[in-house]
Structures are given as C-alpha cells and as structure tokens.
Amino acid sequence: MSDFVRVAVLGDVPMGTALKVTVNNRAIALVNCAEGVFAISDVCSHADVSLSEGEVIDCTIECWLHGSQFNLRTGLPLTPPAISAVPTYEVRLVDDAGTTHIEVATSPTPVSTDGRPQS
Ligand code: FES
Is the Cβ atom of 109 under 6 angstroms away from ligand 1? Predict the structure, then answer.
C-alpha cells in the first residue's frame, strides 16, 4: 500500500487542464478531466518533454512536441511516435475544512508484464 502526499487543492487544476507537481523528486502531471483527477509522470516516454504543457483532450494528455496522446489511467500511448507507457500514480481527493485537496501516491502504480497498471 502506497503512502500519499498532499500536492495541491482541486481549484489549482481547473477542468481540462494539467498542473506539474513534484513528489519524491519526480515530476508528475496532475490532470483534471470529466472522468476525474489523474496523476501521470510529467516526462513523455518519447523524449524529455513536459506532458503537463500539453493539451488535455477527452481525458488523455497530448504531448506538445510530437503529438502522442497518453491514456491517463494506464499511461499507455494511444498514438505514435511514443511506444512506451509513462508511469501513473493513484490519486485521492480529500475534503478538509471545506477545501478539496489532491493527494498522490508516492510510488507509481505497479505494472504487469504487458505494461498495464495492476489494480
Ligand atoms: S516528445 Fe512526446 S511524443 Fe515526442
């Protein structure tokens, strides 16, 4: 079971946007879309590019440099040129004194041999 760390308040990440945060010296993109708030490594698997600077499209995030779109639940690329998944992290929303806080797991979600996160 992962530990969680509080990284932002929900209002910091408006719907349809991404925010870069740092957890244990790892850059993570928080993404708020219609299906919830997700945390995915901020580093594209194709090159060292910040995914949080990309565009949120239908609950995916599109790398701004070459256009690969990544599934926010699995980290898997949906379009080339990226071919490898980026790590994902569990997210939980915690209400505290009337404010909704975003907490992220300190370790990435384990993946199985086919690269998909294990539940
Ligand atoms: S750097 Fe992200 S798709 Fe090329």
Answer: no
User: In whole angstroms, what is the distance from residue 19 CA to residue 29 CA?
Assistant: 5
Q: Is 53 in the pocket of ligand 1 (CB under 6 A)?
A: no
> In this structure, what token pair is assigned to residue 119?
């539940």
pLDDT for position 110: 82
Residue 6, token pair as written in the block:
């509080």
- Among protein residues, the one with the nearest Cα to ligand 1's atom 1 is 47
Domains of the chain: 4-105 (2.102.10.10)
Phi, psi of 20 (to 5 degrees): -85, 130
Ligand 1 mean position to 80 CA, how many Å?
A: 9
Q: Residue 10: what residue type?
A: L
Task: Tell me what percent of the residues of the chain surpass a pLDDT of 70.
Answer: 92
